[in-house]
Each structure stands twice: as structure tokens, then as C-alpha cells.
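Re-run with default settings, no changes from the original entry. Doing this only to confirm the output is reproducible before filing.
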Amino acid sequence: MASDPSTGTLLSHRNRTVVTVFWILALVAVFEIILAAVALAPRVATGMRTGIASLPTAAPMPSSQGTMQPTQGSPFQQQASSPTQSPLEAGEQTTLTPSNQPLSDSTATGGPSLQIVNAKLLGSNEGSKKLQVSIKSNTRDTIDVPQVKVQVYFYDQDNGEIVPSKAQVTSTWLSPPVDWKKGEPELLEVQYLPETASSDVTFAGYLVAIYYKGDLQDCRAEPGRLKKLFAPKYYIGSEE
């Protein structure tokens, strides 16, 4: 039995209609997705910027120039005896510790605060002697008198060996008051009184060291080689 041509045409028309409707719906859906994406894009971008801004940042590395420098104070800030009270450690026989340091670090900041301008030894080759030492201030700043310390050492030659002397030593300031005003030298006199007249022990020389606030300011020795044999300490404390 032959099919009705009108029925086939109707089915074909319905199929095309369904396909057309399907494509229309698909296009509408795609269009709505595009519109939604466009509408949401500013919010997404804002959220991303906010999230990036809220991320923690790494702490900057410290600069090498910011390294803390060690402080310059301390175990050495001890008061020395005043020259007006005890002008020097008379007759002290403590062996001095040699030092390879420069005489004073104050030379790097404009020179020493105190300086020996003259040292003169009076007396014969044998017997008692007087050593006169002239010292002056090189700074316009007021010198803190209790922070000044003068050390005088005498040496003898005993059986060919140079050793610290056992002679009696006394001292006095010849220019009181000792206030260390700039340009006005202070004069110290030290007496060397040997205890024996043994021919095996002879006078070998002297060494004078000036300290201010514990730092060595100047040194004078006669003969000069005593400065190498008994080099003065670069720094002293209040008990030395």
C-alpha cells in the first residue's frame, strides 16, 4: 500500500521546525551567557585586583650600611688618678707589656690631648738625679684633671742586663695649680735616689708616659731603645 505524500511532507516540515527552534534556543542561550560574562567581567577584575593588593609583601633586606657598629665604650672607661693628688706612680716596677698599637688613637682625630714638650735629666753619671718633664695641653677643651696620669720609670743596668730600677723615686709639680690650660706647660720634677753605690749597678735611662682617660697620649725615653725594650701600654686602667 503506497504512503500518503501529504503525511511525509508534514513530518519533514515538523522536523525542520524543531531543528530551527533548537538552534534559536541555542543562540539565545549563548547570547545570554555572553551578556552575563560581560556583566560580571568588571566585578571579576575588581576582585582580582583586590586579591593581588592584599597579598603580603616580602620584608626588605637590611642594607649593609645599616649594620650596627660596636660601641666604643666600655670595659676601659675607668678613672685614672689625678696628677695633683698623685702625679705619677713613683718607683713602680711593674714590667710594661709591649704593644704593637700606635701611641694614641687620638692622632686620628686631630692629635693627642697632652704632649711632652721637653724632658731634661740633671745630675752626674753616678748618684742621685733629677728629671724635669714639661707637658702641655694641645686642646682648647677643658682637660679633666683626674683623668690625667703620668708614669715615670727609671732603669738600671745590672751585670749587663737592663732592668727596672729599685731606686727610691719622689716627684713634685713645680707649676701649681696643675690645670692643663692650653699653651701653658706644666712642669714635673722626679728625683732618682739609688739605694746602693754598687759598681755592678749603673743608671741606664728613663721612660715617661702620659695618659688621658686611659689612652696613651705621648711617650719619651732616653735612650730611645728603652721604648722598644719596655714599650708603654697603649691603654691603662685606674689601678695601673
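The longest strand covers residues 201-212. Confidence is low (pLDDT under 50) at residues 50-108.
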